[in-house]
Amino acid sequence: EHNQDIASWSAQYQGEPIEREGTVFAPEDMNFYNGELPPDDMLVRKFMVVDPSFGGGDYTASPVCMQYSDGTVYVPDVVYDNGDKTITIPLLVEAIIKYGVTAVRIECNKMTMSYKEELERELEKRGLKINIQTKAAPNNQSKEARIFDKAPTIRSQFIFLDENRRSKAYTTFMVNVYSFRVTGHNKHDDAPDSLAMAADFIERPASSKVEVFRRPW
Question: Which SS3 state, helix, strand or coil, does residue 121 take?
């Protein structure tokens, strides 16, 4: 990454060749920080978005996002694991507690709502009840188109950890981001898709839910 040659490194040391042509993200176009976050008085919210995996070798991808008043979004950590929900849900709970996350958005539908419900149960066991919302994947836009659409926001507003400060999961997450292509086949696109979800969250945060009920008197 330092030499701006992720493709060669991934092929030689990860055994996963990356096609350079058609890639959307490159290290020289991204923003990084040394682990020191801006002052707390600039903090707007701490949130996570979750692109969950339900099998098939895909990864559960979830960046921890710190949104600040100047429009920047720092990513101090990520959950990125291809295990089943017995592994990934505890990882999400741990990250939520560690970073004081107050809002979570999970991409799922009626068939996969159990993932959200199980995450809520695990948080309640820890005495936590936070705002967890769900949003179905758009049916009028492909995943590749969504990532490409949000790429300018990811490149300009998101700030990632320097390479020498990352966990193994964070490093693998970033390699997946750099390997994403708009042409050809993507073996995994979970990491860039989760960033596209995060970009959508800051542009369209959760709206308040209004319920009508009968007055008790």
Answer: helix
CA distance 195 to 198: 5
Q: How many CB atoms lie within 10 A of CB 24?
A: 19
What six digits make up the tokens of 182?
């708009």
In whole angstroms, what is the distance from residue 102 CA to residue 108 CA?
19
Handedness of CA 149, 20, 176, 187 (dihedral sign): positive
**pLDDT score at 116:** 94
The burial class, CB within 10 Å (0-12 / 13-18 / 19+), for 188 is buried
Pull the structure tokens for residue 14.
């990860």
pTM of the entire predicted model: 0.84
- H or E stretch including 105? strand 103-107
**Angstrom distance (rounded) from CA 50 to CA 62:** 5
Residue 207 has pLDDT above 60, yes or no: no
DSSP, res 12: I
Please say whether the beta carbons of 88 and 52 come within 8 A. yes
- Report the side by side order of strands in the sheet with 60-68: 31-33, 158-161, 73-81, 60-68, 43-50, 103-107, 131-135
